[in-house]
Amino acid sequence: MPQKETTVLVGERVKLPTKYGDFELVPFQEKKNGLEHMALVKGNFTENDTVITRIHSACATGDLFGSLKCDCGDQLIKAIQTIEENGKGAIIYLQQEGRGIGLMNKMKAYKLQENGMDTIEANLHLGFAPDERKYQIAAIILNLLHIKNIKLLTNNPDKIDGLTEHGIQVVERIPLIIKPNPFNINYLQTKKKQMGHLYEINKLAAQ
Ligand SMILES: Nc1nc2c(ncn2[C@@H]2O[C@H](COP(=O)(O)OP(=O)(O)OP(=O)(O)O)[C@@H](O)[C@H]2O)c(=O)[nH]1
Ligand SMILES: [Zn+2]
């Protein structure tokens, strides 16, 4: 499927030593809305490679502040560690805060959840779909990095479908399981039961 690669600007690829290992960072900017995404990469890729890949949606609360209300922060670290151990791979970090509804609306959704709604009911109450994300931008960025075939680190079947629709071959899914805690167990259960996320919650039960 043709990708409109000209709709995304590619910035400087720089070395990024991290506490997890040595990586490189490549920034991207969507021309139509100025949104900036990034790729944390290890190694160089050709279109014949099958690359361990994480498509990570921004979660300021989880990724930056260690929120226990979701599993995002731990998933991100586990993905980076997996790629470091493998010696090659890519994390595409997308500005899709709040499953695409943005931080202000995500906090409205959190407030509704404080008052008893689950994560899906809250989105619907605010007039959004349960998940507003699209994966075309992820596919465009992967193409720009010469990545066509991936082993995807995810529990989310919609991500696999979304990438496949846009021409990325998901050769394998690698689960990205984080042990739940008392603050995120209901959230994880809702994702499993109502959004089809792929994990056995009872094996993971929060202590
Ligand atoms: N609207 C909304 N977004 C949330 C909520 N909790 C987390 N998020 C966002 O959800 C996104 C992560 O989605 P998840 O469904 O946890 O995980 P996923 O990325 O789809 O699936 P995995 O690949 O398995 O991690 C991030 O953008 C978070 O900011 C919530 O209660 N409401
Ligand atoms: Zn999160």
UniProtKB/TrEMBL annotation:
Its EC number is 3.5.4.25. This is GTP cyclohydrolase-2. NCBIfam families: PRK00393.1, ribA. Pathway: Cofactor biosynthesis; riboflavin biosynthesis; 5-amino-6-(D-ribitylamino)uracil from GTP: step 1/4. Transmembrane segments: none annotated. It comes from the Bacteria. SUPFAM superfamilies: RibA-like. It is an enzyme of class 3 (hydrolase). The lineage of its organism: Bacteria, Pseudomonadati, Bacteroidota, Flavobacteriia, Flavobacteriales. Residues 13-175 form the GTP cyclohydrolase II domain.
